[in-house]
C-alpha cells in the first residue's frame, strides 16, 4: 500500500512547484505550512498530504498486523479461522480501489472517475497522476485545483479506512 504514497508525494511536490510555493517540509517530505488563499494562485494540498500521512501509518500498521498473523498462523488448510480472517482482509483490500473513484468524474470528462490517475486531457492515452488537480494547475484554475484536491483527499480518506479495516480484520 505504501507505493501509492511513494507515487503521490513527488507529484504533490511538483504541483506545489507549479504553484510556486515552497513550504517547510515535515517528517515525510510533506509540506506543513498553511498556504495562501486559492484566488492568489496557490494550491492547498494540506488535506491530501494529511491523508497521505494517515495512509502511510495505516499501511505500516497493516503490514505489521499481516506479518504477525502470518508468523502465528499454522498452515491455512488446518486453521479455518485464520483462513477466513485472511480472506476477509483480502476482500477489504480488493474494495480499496473502488473508493478512489468519484461518481462526479474529472472536470470536463465525467466518464473518468479515478482520482489518482487517468489519461491526460491533452495527452491522449498517456496517464496523468492526480489528473483533476494537475490539469487545473496547468490551466491556472486555482479554485478548481483546490476543489479537486478536496476530492482527492476524500478518496484517500476512504482508502485509509479500507486499509485500517483490513488490518482490523487480521486480528
Major β-sheet strand ordering: 1-2
Backbone structural class? mainly alpha
In whole angstroms, how far apart are the ends?
18 Å
The strand count comes to 2
CA radius of gyration is 18 Å
The number of helical segments is 5
Percent helix among the residues? 55-70%
Query: Main sheet, how many strands, which sense, barrel?
Result: 2 strands, antiparallel
* Order of SSEs: HHHEEHH
The proportion of strand residues reads under 5%
Averaged pLDDT: 81
What overall form do the CA principal axes indicate?
elongated
Description:
The chain is mainly alpha-helical and 171 residues long. It has 5 helices and 2 strands. Strands 1-2 form a two-stranded antiparallel sheet. A hairpin with a 7-residue loop joins strand 1 (117-119) and strand 2. The protein is elongated, with a radius of gyration of 18 Å. The model is unreliable at 1-11 and 19-39 (pLDDT under 50).
What is the topological layout?
Blueprint lengths: L1 H17 L27 H26 L8 H17 L20 E3 L7 E3 L1 H8 L3 H29 L1
Antiparallel strand pairs: 1-2
Helix pairs in contact: 1-2, 2-5, 3-5, 4-5
Outline of the structure:
With 171 residues, the protein is mainly alpha-helical.
What labels describe this entry?
171 residues; mainly alpha; two-stranded antiparallel ribbon; 5 helices; 57% helix; elongated; disordered N terminus
Amino acid at each position: 500500500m505504501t507505493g501509492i504514497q511513494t507515487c503521490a508525494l513527488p507529484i504533490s511536490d511538483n504541483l506545489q512547484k507549479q504553484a510556486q510555493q515552497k513550504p517547510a517540509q515535515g517528517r515525510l517530505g510533506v509540506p506543513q505550512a498553511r498556504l495562501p488563499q486559492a484566488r492568489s494562485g496557490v494550491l492547498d494540498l494540506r488535506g491530501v498530504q494529511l491523508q497521505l500521512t494517515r495512509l502511510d501509518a495505516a499501511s505500516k500498521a497493516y503490514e505489521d498486523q499481516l506479518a504477525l498473523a502470518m508468523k502465528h498462523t499454522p498452515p491455512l488448510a488446518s486453521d479455518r479461522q485464520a483462513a477466513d480472517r485472511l480472506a476477509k482482509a483480502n476482500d477489504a483490500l480488493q474494495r480499496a480501489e473502488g473508493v478512489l473513484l468519484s461518481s462526479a468524474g474529472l472536470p470536463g470528462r465525467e466518464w473518468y472517475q479515478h482520482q489518482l490517475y487517468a489519461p491526460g486531457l491533452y495527452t491522449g492515452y498517456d496517464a496523468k497522476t492526480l489528473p483533476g488537480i494537475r490539469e487545473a494547475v496547468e490551466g491556472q484554475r486555482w479554485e478548481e485545483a483546490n476543489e479537486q484536491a478536496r476530492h482527492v483527499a476524500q478518496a484517500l480518506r476512504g482508502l485509509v479506512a479500507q486499509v485500517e479495516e483490513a488490518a482490523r480484520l487480521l486480528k
